[in-house]
Amino acid sequence: MKKTFLAVALVLLLTVPAATMPARAQTSGQSYTITGAGSTFIFPLMDTWRVQYNNLHSNIQLNYQSIGSGAGINLLEKKTVDFAASDAPLQPNEEAAAPGVLTIPDSLGGITISYNIPGVNGGLKLTGPVIAQIFMGKINSWNDPAITSLNPGVNLPNQKILIAHRADGSGTTYAFTDYLSKVSPDWKSTVGQGKVVPWPVGTGAQGNAGVANIVKTTPYACGYVELAYAYQNNFTYAVVQNADKTAFVEPTIATVAADAAAAGSNLPTADGDWSQVSIVNQPGDNAYPISTLTYVMVYKDMGQISGETPDKAKEVVNFLNWIVNDGQQYATSLLYVPLPDSIKKIDQQGLAEIQFNGSPMSAVPEFGPVAALVLAVAITSIVVVSARTGLNLAPKL
Fold first, then answer.
1. Which of 323, 305, 295 is nearest to 50 (CA)?
2. CA–CA distance, 257 with 266 (Å, rounded to integer)
3. Cα–Cα distance between 6 and 166 in angstroms, integer?
4. Distances from the Cα of 367 to the Cαs of 42, 86, 211, in angstroms?
5. Rounded to whole angstroms, how far apart are CA atoms 394 and 244?
6. Rounded CA gap, 374 and 372, in Å?
């Protein structure tokens, strides 16, 4: 009987490490809340990921604060969130404030020029230079000749264009002003590109939802709104002249994907410099020119995050791996473009590099409460049996 008991204890001791190998989707039975913050652009998809991942792993909750890319990056610099989300890559000053951050593209999306003109349906044609002049206040009426000449037969009203723009630090603003800077030398020299810019005219609002609300509730308003928000609010939006000046292109899954594909696959590694990456205004008949990558930013060494633990860090990596792989199946229905395989490979290689206090994640011990209890029982059993039988099997503790 004693030999049998001892054998069982030894088996338990040997199987505990095997039961906690990192190949599992979850590292323990503990409940964890993963914290993220930033991009409002990605929020509709991120919120879907939150729900679907919790359906698969009920012990994992995602607390994502949709507060704008700039605010999310600020929290990442303070090391108070597990990850930040942004539609703008880190700039050199941000990289200096948050050294050791990996850039993980998580989706692709389009930015619409949405408008609220009573009696005018979607499909208003606009060129890049005209859009720039509208947002500079130089074209300030809907029946300005610059707009009517592009839209013969459309009865445009003699009404002032009411501009809505972001008031917060925004990756959507970064991508939109990147586009305007490429199509308008005047915009580039007087306003420029950034998450925050000195808007010449208009009313500011917080987040994509804030800009969408102004456009939705204000007759004759115009704003730049992420495609998912425009779709959810049943907005009318412009078809925009492509970079080749050969066609006016509607923002769709296919046309945003065409713009991204034209940008090529020559992207940095996850730990490289993404500050100059841009996919706006790419060539191609069917390429929608106001498109952007969206990103998750995470520290390569997660041990420096406030309150982080090895098990929780592994759950964060599990979640991020899921969104860039299985999670992409939810993108299309929300009008985001699933990641191409070339970008998935960059993400997978980057996530494989994540460490905890200098140790690779695969080398970090994984003892959840159940495994710890089994281990304690096994060790105690060996000590007791060996003491009673005189066998020298007690482990050196």
1. 323
2. 16
3. 68
4. 34, 34, 47
5. 77
6. 6
Q: Is the pLDDT of residue 313 over 60?
A: yes
The CA distance from 293 to 222, in Å, is 23
Three-class SS state of 292: strand
Domain edges within the chain: 2-107+292-363, 110-262
CATH 3.60.9.10 correct for 110-262: no
DSSP 101: E
Report in angstroms the alpha-carbon separations of 243 from 68, 229, 282.
28, 24, 6
Locate tokens 């206090």: which residue?
357
Q: Report strand pairing: 162-166 vs 203-205.
A: parallel
* Model confidence, pTM: 0.82
What CA–CA distance (Å, rounded) separates 367 from 362? 13
Matching residue, tokens 């951050």: 101
In whole angstroms, give the CA distance from residue 319 to residue 57.
10
The CB density around residue 29, as the number of other CB atoms within 10 Å, is: 10
**Would you place residue 259 in the very low, low, confident or very high pLDDT band (cuts 50, 70, 90)?**
confident
Exposure class string for 257-267: b at 16+ Cβ within 10 A, else e = bbbbbbbeeeb
Write out the CATH class of domain 2-107+292-363.
Answer: alpha beta
- C-alpha angle 149-234-335 in degrees, rounded to nearest 5: 95
Tokens of 151: 């839209």
Are the beta carbons of 132 and 184 closer than 8 angstroms? yes
Give the span between the Cα atoms of 58 and 200, in whole angstroms.
Answer: 48
- What DSSP designation does 60 have? E
CA distance 159 to 353: 55
241 or 262, which is more confident: 241
Q: How far apart (Å, rounded) are the C-alpha atoms in residues 229 and 236?
A: 11
Angle at 121 between CA 186 and CA 87, to 5 degrees: 50
Q: At what angle do helices 369-389 and 2-19 cross, to 10 degrees?
A: 150
pLDDT of residue 394: 42
Residues 6 or more apart from 308 whose CB is under 8 A from it? 82, 302, 356
Q: At what angle do helices 171-183 and 128-136 cross, to 10 degrees?
A: 120
For residue 79, the model assigns a pLDDT of 97
Q: Are strands 83-86 and 248-249 parallel, antiparallel or unpaired?
A: unpaired
β-strand pairing of 101-115 with 236-237 = antiparallel
Task: Assess whether the region 2-107+292-363 and the region 110-262 belong to the same CATH fold.
Answer: yes
